[in-house]
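Lab notebook: predicted structure, single chain.

Context: the supervisor wants predicted structures on file for every construct in the current expression panel, including those that have not yet been purified. This is the next one on the list. No modifications to the sequence; it matches the entry in the shared construct table.
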Amino acid sequence: MEGYDDHLDRALERTPEIEGSGDRFDVPDPDVRQEGNVTVYENFQATLDRLGRDGDHVLKFLQDELGTSAHIDESGRARLTGEFGESRIADAIDEYAEEFVLCPECGLPDTKLEREQGAVLLRCEACGARSATSQ
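Prediction complete. Output recorded below exactly as produced.
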């Protein structure tokens, strides 16, 4: 008959290693400039690459947070109607990462968005946690 320690050892052997350096998850600072009444988010594609998320999903979140309309141009830049500073956009991107990228259990960014029965869930590939999102 196996004891507790044997079960624990077997469970630990089967637990996947969580690859994480413990470094803070860094998203590039927004590089924005004004073009009349439009704010051009120059490095939007670099932000998407780091977040690992779909551009339309991130853009919709930015529109909701900033209360504006926006689109992605042919160069992959986000064009937001209105004047928005780097810090305002950075705050919105940080909120996006908190809600849709970082695992609420382990804090790692190794997550995927999944749709299940109409709800969008955040599934962590590092720890296996699943949590509901606001969208």
